[in-house]
């Protein structure tokens, strides 16, 4: 086929195969990416696991803020973070936009605004 005039297609086909291989490799590396968010009466603990490494971040629940920052472009996803005392932790980077918005709403209901801590379901207040 290359002799018959199709040779200009070969570099593009090779480039597409390289791009597909890179995307597949990146996807396989991220398949074990997980975040575990634990909300208790006094703190929020976030454990992030990626490629055998674990990172543990703890925020005081009373002072924590959930922020969903929308991107200026439809090509870029929003960023969901929990922030407190100048520190922040990004959540759900692997989620779809709809899943990230749902998680943000649920966390805002659980954590509340700064200086308020709504009671958690299943706990008994005094």
Task: From the structure above, extract its key features.
three-stranded antiparallel β-sheet; 126 residues; alpha+beta; 2 domains
Question: TL;DR of this structure?
Answer:
This protein is α+β, with helices and mostly antiparallel strands and 126 residues long. It has helices at 9-30, 97-111; strands at 34-39, 43-50, 53-60, 65-69, 79-84, 87-91.
Question: Would you spell out the secondary-structure blueprint of this structure?
Answer:
Elements: H1 9-30, E1 34-39, E2 43-50, E3 53-60, E4 65-69, E5 79-84, E6 87-91, H2 97-111
Antiparallel strand pairs: 1-2, 2-3, 4-5, 5-6
Description:
By secondary structure, this protein is α+β, with helices and mostly antiparallel strands. It has helices spanning 9-30, 97-111; strands at residues 34-39, 43-50, 53-60, 65-69, 79-84, 87-91. Helices cover 29% and strands 30% of the residues. The longest helix has 22 residues, at 9-30. The model has no long low-confidence stretch (mean pLDDT 84). The chain is elongated and about 75 Å long. The strands form two sheets. Strands 1-2-3 form a three-stranded antiparallel sheet, with no helix packed on it. The protein folds into two domains: 1-31; 33-111.
Number of strands: 6
Beta-strand residue fraction: 25-35%
Tell me the domain tally: 2
Gyration radius (Cα, Å) is 21 Å
Secondary structure category? alpha+beta
**pLDDT averaged over residues:** 84
Give the neighbour order of strands across the main sheet: 1-2-3
The sequence of SSEs as H and E is HEEEEEEH
For the report, how would you describe the main beta sheet? 3 strands, antiparallel
* Number of continuous helical runs: 2
Uncertain segments are none
